[in-house]
# Entry
Amino acid sequence: MVDGRQFSDNAAPGASNDLVPRRSAVVECGRPAKPRERELPISSERGTPMLQQVIGKGKYGSDLIVDLMQRYGIEYVALNPGSTFRGLHDSLVNYGANKPEIILCQHEKIAVQIAHGYAKALGKPMGAIAHDTVGLLHATNGIYYAYMDRAPIILMGATGPMDASRRRPNIDWIHTTVLTSDPIREYVKWDSQPFGTADVIDTFARAYRVATQQPQGPVYLCYDAAFQEDPLEGEWVLPDPEKTTAGTAFHADPAALDQLADWLIGSRQPVLIAGYMARYKPSFYVLVELAEALGAAVIDQRSRFNFPTDHPLNISGAAGKTLSEADVVVGLDVKDLFGAVNRVDMSARTTSSILQPNCKITEIAMRDVGISKWSHEYQQIQPVDMEVMPTRRRRCRRSSNASRRRWPPTRRLRRAPRSAPRRPPRSTPTPAHAGPKTRKRTGTPSHSRRLAWAARLPRRSRATTTS
# Structure
């Protein structure tokens, strides 16, 4: 790739227009491209380069977009190259020195899916770029699944110049749409097609904030091809990410948590169903703490890695039997609570409840906050005895603390010293695991047995997976 700016500036006077592309065009000839040196201000406190704070003279619209990505910590951007964002592609390589790092993909859906997996694993947004209308249509399936999975993605795209006088015949016209985001507006959290430098800065800051606020999801920004390739006029101050990102977490109603704690402590067979709660990593350990404090069975729906797979209280494989004996069920960020507590007759298309008639159900989630007006991905509504709506960062910890305050001292679990083994070595199995002849235990372990198991565990169980 050649830096189109240098190629245009160094072209011989009077050269043919066919040989002198406009700024940031991608050509196959010329000298190898070299990233332009950026003079970043130096921090006097730590002696390290600071991110660009002001952009202006000598920079282009696509340089501004790269600065915004760097400023908000976007480390990678997946793309399948296209002409409508050739300016942005040029700036990523020659102005940004491949920061964010480009991940080259052969299809826009793959680019979105890579960003989806990154967001799911790390809990923060990654960038993806889709070429105008046709590239966006390729990406639609990946965007829809990222939306259903509540994955924060900064999806960017472009359209042919909105100024018709600057369009090339045929190709720029068929790549230009009145509102590029129309095909995906029903399954992104927010979208915008900014016009002008101030709008580009404002919408990027807002898009990052919307994508990372709970419940999270993908956002889409569409940039005019001409804006990317035009020089900036004047100087523009870039936003401070610390002042424009997601705010503090919501807090649940303390009275509701106190009521829930009373139900859990007084229950004979509490069951916790975990869906998306471990999107915030500390929630993994908090759920272990809560389950061990209550001796509660845990059903992990694996929407995220919520609970250790080898933990004695993890009985996801016996969910039906466990729920049929439960007297208190708590859904923790479960998208389909109805499906979790009902059995389905696939041939007759009918459902019936697994739970006992007097079982109390509590849902702790924010499902209806981001409910879709188009897709029925919100699932069938499940009547509950109490619905609590905090964010995942607070709800499980507060429920655990409230339960501990009310747990009678004589019934609190006594933990073994940290040096004590979690379970007998596999080489000397206990009678319950001695083999087919002696293994008579089936179904769900009793409440007293689960309490005994939990009492032997350290404060934080080892996180393992089956894969």
Observations:
- The two ends are 41 Å apart (CA to CA).
- Residues 4-34, 39-50, 409-445, 453-467 have pLDDT under 50 and may be disordered.
- The longest helix spans residues 132-148.
